[in-house]
Amino acid sequence: MKVERLPPGAPVVAFGSAEARYQIVGRLPEGAVGVITLAPRGHVGMHEAPLKQQMVVVAGAGWVQGKDGEQVPLAVGDVATFEAGEAHATLASAAGLTVLVIEGVR
Prior knowledge:
Blueprint: E1 10-11, E2 18-28, E3 31-48, E4 53-66, E5 71-75, E6 79-82, E7 87-103
Antiparallel strand pairs: 1-2, 2-3, 3-7, 4-5, 4-6, 4-7
């Protein structure tokens, strides 16, 4: 068995993002598994999913927003799924938000 502590991840600055970090934790044949950590009120700006992806909320709370501007609340245990090319943004509440992102989901 091997247990490792994840480093804090690289800052996400694309798409007008703020207070966001991303760390890849594994590779898939066509995609990756990573962790996005948003500080309180942080966000990843509107962008298109490069591949079909799922975001699993593991800590905190927040919202996902589609191109139509509607914000859908997220809480621990929720899973948001985005099709390849689907535009979305992710926003953290005052509690912050941590999600496991699986890109290349079939």
